[in-house]
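User: Design a sequence. Structure:
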């Protein structure tokens, strides 16, 4: 009888450990939602670009501003693709999310950092 009780206890502990590991590794990361305000990042870069362009005194400075805008346009889609891999979560536009939860993470700053010039 003691052997049977001991086996049942060991089996219960193994099942509990497996369920806890499954919860930590699969369920909880799947419940995390990253939100990003692409419009805010875009407006900030647009304002920066406009400021540089209006202060530009030479054609070279204008060309540099245009190169900056082109580089931003190329980096933005790549940065958006990298965000889900970096946070291991679902990433959505902030405007598409009606409310926040304790598992909602704002990734706007991370996106802003990724699109900055290296």
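Assistant: Done.
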């Amino acid at each position: 009888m003691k052997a049977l009780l001991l086996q049942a206890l060991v089996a219960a502990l193994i099942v509990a450990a497996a369920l806890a590991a499954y919860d930590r590794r699969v369920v909880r990361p799947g419940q995390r939602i990253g939100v990003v305000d692409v419009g805010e990042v875009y407006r900030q870069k647009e304002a920066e670009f406009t400021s540089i362009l209006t202060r530009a005194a030479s054609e070279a400075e204008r060309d540099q501003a245009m190169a900056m805008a082109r580089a931003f346009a190329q980096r933005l889609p790549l940065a958006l693709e990298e965000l889900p891999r970096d946070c291991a979560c679902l990433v959505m536009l902030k405007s598409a999310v009606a409310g926040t939860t304790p598992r909602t993470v704002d990734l706007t700053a991370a996106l802003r950092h990724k699109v900055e010039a290296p």
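The CA atoms of residues 33 and 100 lie 9 Å apart. The chain has one domain: 32-115.
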